[in-house]
């Protein structure tokens, strides 16, 4: 088992839990109520207790449970659907729509495409990006990592902005783990994104069927511009720019890149938490980057860290530190 992968899973979960209390709040309201946050706080709008990670980490873990089944993409999709069926308190609209059983059987992987098509090919939320670190944690590397990231994202979020953002992010994680400098690692991630024919990958995997002519044409029409938008947001994030912490995938990506340039874990996560809005998701993605960089999560945050929901294979009262090693070992590729 990769120790960095385990540390990254703990890092993103702790960052997510730290941001749970400030989700949908304004920076002024956060500062007034909490001061500068450096430990878990009450006040989650979805009822998560201090130290409980949210849907972001839940979906990372569910994806890892899916990989542990060794049944490929149907196993991942099945695990995500089991998570949804357990009634988590916070589910993104596009995620919920894509994972409904009516969106296709477990043998069909096009629920995300159908949900995107129903949105008029416009929805580009961060629900795929928030969980995509699971693919890297599961041990995919190189070209296989890029291809898998595209497919797993499109299970719920098939917009090319979502797909390319995820391909970039996991390649970025891989480069950071190899010891590359931050800007160099980002350049590597962009190069991987540029080289991947994502539409062909989704077509080969049965996610984007040629019989779905509208979605097929829309992905092709938007593909080049989507890549350009990802590049622009990555470069802005490297310069420290944060447009917003909204649920839009490129806002989340840009903000996480900006925050994760920090010299310590807490210095990276705190801005995501203190800016509010979709703070748990931005913090989660920031935590993944900080973990891949090897910046340690403060020990005092790990002892109380747990998942804030129960579904098959996980109990709410389980703390993460003793259970995550077994999960990562089970999910990682042989």
Task: Write up what this structure looks like.
The structure is a single chain. The protein is mainly alpha-helical. The chain has a single domain, classed as ADP-ribosylation/Crystallin J1 (ADP-ribosylglycohydrolase fold), CATH 1.10.4080.10. It has helices spanning 3-19, 27-34, 55-68, 73-85, 93-99, 111-118, 133-137, 142-154, 160-177, 182-195, 198-205, 213-238, 249-259, 265-274, 279-293, 299-302, 320-331, and strands at residues 52-53, 306-307. The chain has a two-stranded parallel ribbon. α1 packs antiparallel against α15, α9 packs across α10 (182-195) and α10 (182-195) packs antiparallel against α12 (213-238). It starts with a helix and ends with a helix. The mean pLDDT is 94.
CATH fold-level assignment: ADP-ribosylglycohydrolase fold
CATH superfamily, please?
ADP-ribosylation/Crystallin J1
Mean pLDDT: 94
> What's the tally of helices?
17
The level-1 CATH class: Mainly Alpha
What is the number of strand segments? Answer: 2
Radius of gyration: 18 Å
**Morphology call:** globular
Give the SSE layout:
Layout: H1 3-19, H2 27-34, E1 52-53, H3 55-68, H4 73-85, H5 93-99, H6 111-118, H7 133-137, H8 142-154, H9 160-177, H10 182-195, H11 198-205, H12 213-238, H13 249-259, H14 265-274, H15 279-293, H16 299-302, E2 306-307, H17 320-331
């Amino acid at each position: 088992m990769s120790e960095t992968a385990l540390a990254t899973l703990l890092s993103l979960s702790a960052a997510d839990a730290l941001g749970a209390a400030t989700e949908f709040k304004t920076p002024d309201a956060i500062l007034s109520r909490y001061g500068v946050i450096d430990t878990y706080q009450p006040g989650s709008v979805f009822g998560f207790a201090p130290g409980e990670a949210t849907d972001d980490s839940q979906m990372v873990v569910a994806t890892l449970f899916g990989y542990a089944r060794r049944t490929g993409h149907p196993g991942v999709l099945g695990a995500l659907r089991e998570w949804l069926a357990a009634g988590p308190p916070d589910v993104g609209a596009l995620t919920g729509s894509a994972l409904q059983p009516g969106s296709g059987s477990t043998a069909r992987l096009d629920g995300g495409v159908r949900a995107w098509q129903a949105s008029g090919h416009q929805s580009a939320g961060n629900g795929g990006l928030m969980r995509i670190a699971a693919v890297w944690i599961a041990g995919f590397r190189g070209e296989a990592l890029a291809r898998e990231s595209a497919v797993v994202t499109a299970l719920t979020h098939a917009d090319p902005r979502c797909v390319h953002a995820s391909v970039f992010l996991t390649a970025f994680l891989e480069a950071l783990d190899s010891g590359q400098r931050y800007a160099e690692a980002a350049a590597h991630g962009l190069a991987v994104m540029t080289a991947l024919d994502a539409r062909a990958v989704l077509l080969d995997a049965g996610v984007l069927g040629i019989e779905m002519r509208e979605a097929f044409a829309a992905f092709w029409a938007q593909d080049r511009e989507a890549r350009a938008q990802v590049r622009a947001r990555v470069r802005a994030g490297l310069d420290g720019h944060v447009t917003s912490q909204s649920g839009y995938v490129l806002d989340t990506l840009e903000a996480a890149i900006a925050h994760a340039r920090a010299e310590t874990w807490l210095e990276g996560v705190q801005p995501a938490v203190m800016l509010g809005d979709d703070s748990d998701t931005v913090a989660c993605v920031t935590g993944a980057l900080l973990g891949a960089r090897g910046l340690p999560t403060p020990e005092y945050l790990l002892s109380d860290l747990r998942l804030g929901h129960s579904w098959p294979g996980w109990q709410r009262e389980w703390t993460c530190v003793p259970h995550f090693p077994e999960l990562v070992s089970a999910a990682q590729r042989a």
